[in-house]
Amino acid sequence: MSAPPVRPPILLLGVGLLLVAFNLRPALTTVGPLLTEIRAETGLGAAGAAILTTLPVLFLGLGSGVGPAISRRLGPDRGVLLAIAVVALGLGLRALGGLVPLFLGACVSAAGIGLAGGLLPGLVKRDFPGHVGLVTGLYTMTLCLGAAAGAGLTVPLLDALPGGWAAALAAWSVPAAVASLAWAPLALARPHFPAAPGVGSGIAGIGRHRLAWQVTGFMGLQSSLAYITFAWLPSVLRSRGLDAVDAGFIASLMSLGQAPSALLVPTLAARARDQRAHAVGLVALTVIAFLGLLFAPLGVVAPLAVGLGFGLGGMFGLGLTMIVLRARDSISAAALSALAQGVGYSIAALGPLGFGLAHEAGGWNWSALLFCTFALGAALCGLRAGRDRTISASA
């Protein structure tokens, strides 16, 4: 009888998970600060810019949706390895320059991000069952730091690297490749066994529960608010008179503001009886801060950006935490994650596209109204998804 495979140490698993998490947002936050330069060089119109900010969110949903199939075939650990390698590939494609590699790279890297994001909650439930809130907070905080790095460092990279915006965007493939190399030995050390009966129908099983769709609604609508901000905040600030460096700095501040709430909110929410107050409070903070960035004096944009980031980071961490808390076991967590992120990101894709089209039709006032509408929907879904209940993919 052969000895069972050695389980990687928990500390190494945690470090590997954080390295992966760091690379799950730069692909999404690096285009916004350079959108003016990209449009000037390529002739990309307003509708094309809106599509550029929308397609990656759709591919996030597609990546999340195939998570269960990838997990059954490769195992969740190797599925994450595949995902982060795809992210690195998509980011690297941008080095070719031009609109086709830009759009293709955005879609490929987003699919990898969606796949990883769909698999990670199940890994947390499996490997850290006694520390779900803390570990979810840590990897969400690290993800937000990656978003901040992408937003704040891409314009300096544009100035420092030959090759213009294509090289500045492609440079983010390097940390993704490093994460792939770090995660590979951890993933390959884990055995993969055939899926248990019923796993293949996990999404269908979890989808029978109304609560699953309420979690999905919250996840999708809060993501829509985040992707509107990632895609359009630099343009909003530049239209108000900031230059590219200052607008990128403020966007980076916003992303940095996500880090503390991404750590604190999951930890506190996991200890609470339910999460309804967390959801409503964070949505309200997000709306107030975003409207301030649109209309308040420029002298207060820095603290407003931090407040916006705190709200967005907290909502994202809360969404991931509710996925884990509402699921009865790791299989159910993986199924709920695939549903909430797969369908949720399809909902989220409407945000950046609608925001851009609303601006073209009626300026920032119409865009602000759309933002508030999505926020109201997120609050209503959060009131239902935050209740203290659990569901199973098999019952």
From TrEMBL:
InterPro entries: MFS, MFS_Cyanate_Porter, MFS_trans_sf. The chain crosses the membrane at residues 45-67, 79-96, 102-124, 136-158, 164-184, 211-233, 245-265, 277-298, 304-325, 337-358, 364-383. GO terms for molecular function: transmembrane transporter activity. Keywords: Membrane, Transmembrane, Transmembrane helix. It comes from the Bacteria. Signal peptide: none annotated. This is MFS transporter. It comes from Methylobacterium oxalidis. The lineage of its organism: Bacteria, Pseudomonadati, Pseudomonadota, Alphaproteobacteria, Hyphomicrobiales.
